[in-house]
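User: Reviewer 2 asked us to show a designed sequence for the structure in our supplementary figure. I'm pasting the structure tokens here. Could you produce the per-position amino acids so we can include them in the response letter?
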């Protein structure tokens, strides 16, 4: 089931495909209010490598980089360079160490998450 995204407010972005495939350009990141998208629908976007913006998310507690370092820092993950698609092994601690600031090497990185990680 596909849901209609809210009015787009992001410029077109290029999404690199796995294993060096051609990048796909999308006009905007689909944007949803938290009540407009189910977790299953959210997972469908992630499985396709499409970034999603979810607004008005109500979260309990403080989910800042320090929380992820403290709680999951030891876990080894795959980190992807958003511009080249190249992947690296890292820990959550190392990924979040530079989170929110400019990286000295200029790379833009994201954690690649498998569905099995949701059972942490």
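Assistant: Here is a per-position design you can include in the supplement:
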């Amino acid at each position: 089931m596909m849901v209609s995204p809210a009015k787009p407010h992001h410029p077109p972005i290029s999404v690199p495909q796995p294993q060096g495939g051609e990048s796909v350009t999308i006009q905007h990141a689909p944007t949803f209010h938290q009540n407009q998208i189910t977790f299953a629908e959210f997972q469908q976007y992630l499985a396709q490598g499409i970034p999603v913006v979810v607004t008005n998310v109500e979260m309990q507690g403080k989910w800042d980089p320090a929380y992820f370092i403290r709680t999951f820092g030891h876990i080894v993950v795959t980190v992807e360079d958003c511009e080249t698609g190249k992947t690296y092994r890292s820990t959550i601690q190392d990924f979040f160490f530079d989170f929110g600031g400019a990286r000295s090497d200029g790379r833009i990185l994201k954690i690649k998450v498998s569905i099995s990680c949701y059972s942490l």
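For the response letter, you might also mention the following. Confidence is low (pLDDT under 50) at residues 1-10. The first strand starts at residue 13 and ends at 15.
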